[in-house]
Amino acid sequence: MRIDIFTLFPEMFDGPFSQSIVKRARDKGIVSLFIHNFRDYATDKHKTVDDYSYGGGPGMVLKPEPLFDAVEAIRREHGGEEELVSTVLLSPQGRLFRQKTALELARKEHLVLICGHYEGVDERVREHLVSDELSIGDYVLSGGEIAAMVVVDAVVRVLPGALGSAESAIDESHAAGLLEYPQYTRPPVFRGWSVPEVLLSGNHQEILRWRRRESLRRTREMRPDLIKEAILSQEEVSSLEAVGGLGSAESMVE
How far is CA 194 from CA 182, 199, 203, 217, in A? Predict the structure, then answer.
């Protein structure tokens, strides 16, 4: 996969993308990451990328010309089949970025991320340049750079070969629509607090059942909104309904 990020602050990406899983994925050739300063595509002597909003109002708006020129230059040089390329604007107005969104983007061959800034971007960027808009949450950041880091990290870790174990991505919170079950390691007793006996039993079927129950319990307690979209067995649906864990919405049943 190739990922191109367009930003006014390229230095912000030096640390996050030179560490941990993203670095290993780059070293393995699983993903290629390129950071571009779209100020370089401004054509006036002051390298202007923003201007006042027509109609008045506070703050500045990113101009369309530098963004169109920057993104289209990369598309011409590295563009692939249209359905395998996604051009994304990071914006508080975008659809909420979730684990299933990461899986969706991971199927693309080329991902283009545009980091918004100031009061936003000229509406023509939204209408004619990008194919998607994403938000990482219902709050306002200073720019799209941190959001782009979140998207890249989530997408890269689900690419085949990025993690040490293929099971790691499957077991993580949100991967199956639920929060992850509790995890324990040595020692078996710490300050009088013991590891659940089932995890020490060696009975893998019982361990799997315990983990599923705990995953459901934790999701019901901490993120009940996720339960509504989870794929559950009829037995699990009945069990959750008995304790009021499904609410008024129906979950999908296997």
Answer: 13, 11, 18, 19
Helices (H), 157-233: 166-171, 197-200, 204-222, 224-227
Phi/psi at 186 (nearest 5 deg)? -65, 145
In the chain, domain spans: 2-156, 173-253
Q: How far apart are CA 193 and CA 69, in angstroms?
A: 60
Digit-coded pLDDT (tens) for 217-244: 999 999 999 888 888 888 888 778 776 6
CATH topology of domain 173-253: Trp Operon Repressor; Chain A (1.10.1270)
Whether domain 2-156 has CATH 3.40.1280.10: yes
* Residue 223: partners with Cβ closer than 8 Å, 6 or more residues away: 179
* DSSP string for residues in 62-81: E-HHHHHHHHHHHHHHH---
Q: Which pLDDT tens digit goes with each residue over 76-102?
A: 998 778 889 999 999 999 999 999 999
Query: Which token pair is 229?
Result: 């979209």
Query: Considering the entire predicted model, what is its pTM?
Result: 0.86
